[in-house]
Design a protein that fits this description.
The protein has a two-stranded antiparallel ribbon with strand order 1-2. Helix 1 packs parallel to helix 5, helix 2 runs antiparallel to helix 3 and helix 4 packs across helix 5. It is rod-shaped and about 95 Å long. The chain is 82% helix and 4% strand. Strand 1 and strand 2 form a beta hairpin. The chain has 190 residues and is mainly alpha-helical.
């Protein structure tokens, strides 16, 4: 039940348990990181409202085309920001270890298996007691659950981080386009 990394001996169960809880904690950290992009997107949507309210009374006809193109591109980027934040936050199904009631049932199944088969198969072939085999079997079962859940949750966390990174880049592009649109707006009213 041990893993050797170089000369370091690590208990497999302890390692998988720590990895499992670390990924659950990482999930919460990633979820809390979506609050800043959501706030910035809210401000970007509010600025869109500001730009759209004066579009009909735009004084300079030469700049109106640039303004509309800039505003349309800005609007598209803000919509893409909203979609990416939603994709980064919703639609993930994390795996968790089973409930204590189910774990108790699993323990009873393992216990029954070793109680029924200890005398035939295990007493002669192993130097472990029946209780040691039951505990070892249950630890192996929990270890498998930790490994399965951790693998799934790690993939989901990495996917979320990628979407949040894309969201950050798109938000930066949206802010730049907002500044350009605002510059055109200011140049026309002065």
């Amino acid at each position: 039940m041990n893993i050797y990394i170089g000369v370091i001996k690590i208990d497999k169960f302890t390692l998988f348990e720590k990895m499992y809880y670390q990924e659950i904690e990482q999930k919460e950290k990633i979820n809390s990181r979506t609050s800043i992009p959501l706030s910035v997107i809210f401000l970007l949507v509010a600025s869109l409202g500001f730009f759209f309210k004066d579009i009909k009374k735009f004084p300079n006809a030469t700049w109106v085309g640039y303004y509309k193109i800039s505003l349309a591109a800005y609007c598209i980027l803000v919509c893409m920001d909203i979609v990416l934040v939603c994709v980064a936050y919703y639609g993930y199904s994390y795996k968790y270890i089973q409930s204590p009631v189910i774990l108790e049932k699993d323990y009873k199944i393992i216990d029954k298996y070793f109680n029924d088969n200890y005398e035939k198969y295990f007493k002669i072939n192993t130097n472990k007691t029946k209780e040691e085999l039951i505990i070892s079997g249950f630890k192996d079962h929990l270890c498998d659950q930790y490994a399965t859940c951790t693998e799934n949750n790690t993939k989901l966390n990495e996917k979320k981080l990628i979407y949040l990174r894309y969201t950050g880049w798109l938000i930066m592009a949206s802010i730049v386009l907002c500044a350009i649109t605002y510059l055109i707006y200011i140049l026309n009213y002065n």
